[in-house]
Design goal:
By secondary structure, this protein is of the alpha+beta class. It has helices at about 15-25, 40, 190-205, 210-230, and strands at about 5-10, 10-15, 35-40, 75-80, 95-105, 105-110, 155, 160-165, 170-175, 180-185. The strands form three sheets. The protein has a five-stranded antiparallel beta sheet. It has a three-stranded antiparallel beta sheet with strand order 7-6-9, with no helix packed on it. Strands 1-2 form a two-stranded antiparallel sheet. The radius of gyration is 18 Å and the shape is globular. The chain starts with a strand and ends in a 5-residue tail after the last helix.
């Protein structure tokens, strides 16, 4: 799969190029990150190696519904990183649950209790509402004084281990060396309302009418998936 490409910022990279860059990555000159490959679209051959696909843990997962195919269901990414790579503090878009599966190397996962959202200084409106401007590795307490009260929980995951991040939890990751992981997103009755609210707010931020239309569509999708769960009909 070395010749498969993905885009980061404005640059295109192949799998081989990213593996080379992350192997040589340093704190002073980190590899580009987060570079990710959508498994369903860009590396579908990997699916045959991923059995069971959702580890028999991410169930039920309404993102597998046919009506969401090629929309929000492509929620399975392969991440490749190296030393010096760290992600911004965020909570996952659309309030999905996330299952982080470490395939190679080690990675530190840092999460914050749900009641500490105010301490994260989230942005205003749209996608910015799920992003924090704070560099937690070197926080500016003068600019973000409330962050002093934050109590991060840290865990290191190794190859073969899985880390579950519930919907709405602020988190980030830090790489110790070259590492490869996959992330599987999940939505069901437990986080459907938050997912639907994000569907509306992200679209309404730019176009309120479109946001209303998408909210109604999301409501219908949720109702169908809920009925499917009750009667035992598979939605994928």
């Amino acid at each position: 799969f070395g010749d498969r490409t993905t885009t980061f910022a404005t640059e295109k990279y192949t799998v081989s190029e990213i593996l080379d860059l992350t192997e040589k990555s340093t704190l002073e000159k980190p590899a580009p990150y987060p570079v990710k490959f959508n498994i369903l679209e860009q590396l579908p051959e990997l699916l045959s190696y991923m059995t069971p696909l959702h580890m028999n843990l991410c169930k039920p997962n309404w993102l597998k519904a046919k009506v969401l195919k090629n929309k929000l269901s492509n929620a399975m990414d392969l991440h490749i990183g190296g030393i010096g790579n760290a992600y911004e503090v965020h909570k996952d878009t659309y309030h999905v649950h996330a299952w982080l599966v470490q395939l190679y190397g080690e990675k530190e996962v840092i999460v914050f209790p749900k009641d500490q959202e105010e301490l994260m200084y989230p942005g205003k409106g749209g996608l910015l509402a799920s992003r924090s401007p704070i560099n937690i590795m070197n926080p500016d307490y003068e600019k973000y004084p409330k962050f002093k009260d934050a109590t991060p929980i840290r865990a290191t995951i190794k190859a073969g281990e899985v880390f579950y991040i519930p919907s709405g939890v602020w988190h980030t990751t830090k790489a110790y060396g070259q590492n490869i992981s996959t992330i599987i997103d999940q939505m069901n009755s437990s986080n459907f309302k938050a997912w639907r609210n994000d569907v509306y707010s992200y679209k309404a931020y730019h176009n309120k009418q479109r946001g209303v239309v998408d909210y109604i569509a999301a409501s219908l999708i949720g109702a169908a998936c809920k009925i499917g769960d009750k009667v035992g009909v598979k939605i994928e």
